[in-house]
Amino acid sequence: xxxxxxxxxxxxxxxxxxxxxxxxxxxxxxxxxxxxxxxxxxxxxxxxxxxxxxxxxxxxxxxxxxxxxxxxxxxxxxxxxxxxxxxxxxxxxxxxxxxxxxxxxxxxxxxxxxxxxxxxxxxxxxx
Length: 127
Hints:
- With 127 residues, this protein is of the alpha/beta class.
- It folds into 2 domains: 7-61, 2,3-Dihydroxybiphenyl 1,2-Dioxygenase, domain 1 (Roll), CATH 3.10.180; 76-127, Roll (2,3-Dihydroxybiphenyl 1,2-Dioxygenase, domain 1), CATH 3.10.180.10.
- The chain is built from 2 helices and 8 strands; from the N terminus they run βαββββαβββ.
- The chain has helices at 16-27, 85-94, and strands at residues 8-12, 30-36, 42-47, 52-57, 78-81, 99-105, 108-114, 120-125.
- The strands form 2 sheets. It has a 4-stranded mixed sheet, with helices on one face. A 4-stranded mixed sheet has the order 5-8-7-6, covered by helices on one side.
- Strand 6 and strand 7 form a beta hairpin.
- The radius of gyration is 15 Å and the shape is globular.
- The model has no long low-confidence stretch (mean pLDDT 94).
């Protein structure tokens, strides 16, 4: 049997369309599906043909994430693999988003940013 692969991750955001717009702009992804979802909420699936993020918002205002590193079951950050880290950072900065925690290590390089919901993204390249 081949190893299993991530197909998607489902996460709660305040505005799935706004988050999807940011991700399509930054990473050249596309919206795979959008519509009504569980518990009266709305979801947008954004990513590639093989992998995606399911962005969900409930009918009530979701709570801010707080410090995820102190919570069981919380997602600490979303890692996005790119082939050109400098070009990816240019897109993030051009969108008015601050980057931080730049590091080069064996075998790659990375930086981080937070979106409008406080969700942390790690952008990494092994090129």
